[in-house]
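Record minuted for everyone:
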Amino acid sequence: MKTSATDKKETLTQKILLVIILVIAAGLVIVTVTHKKMKRDYHWSRESAVSTSQLTTTAEIKKPDKASIYSLLENVADPEFDIDIVNMGLINEVTVNGDHVKIVMTLTTPNCPYIPELVESVRKAVFTHPGVERADLHIALDPPWDFSKVSPQARKKLLDKFRTGELHHE
């Protein structure tokens, strides 16, 4: 029985995905063994955030909603993969109560070297919405991130980066 070019291509793609998953899983095992205590809860207020340059009256300010916050978070890229954190599947939950936003996110690995950069980028993104007065970020490591949380568009981008050599996870 002959295999078609499409079957070979699908098999290669599956093997590439398996290698990526195994590399991430191995990293998670190593990190679990050497895990250090990291800060997992962040609380900010507009006063502590970088002030916005726009001057608006209270009547003009629209209250945030989940969709607007997700939209802002799509502007935050994972520094390692250069894909936004929403499509990478790093945002577990967004809740909005008036002017207070709560975000639960995860990391691709618990020992991510980009935690400070990601946290600061999330803070800046959320406070670009003029209606946000307070924001809380919780980094949850359970359930752990896995490749199944990545959107189809981001998967394609990751595979393209892997094929072109742009992505070489160590």
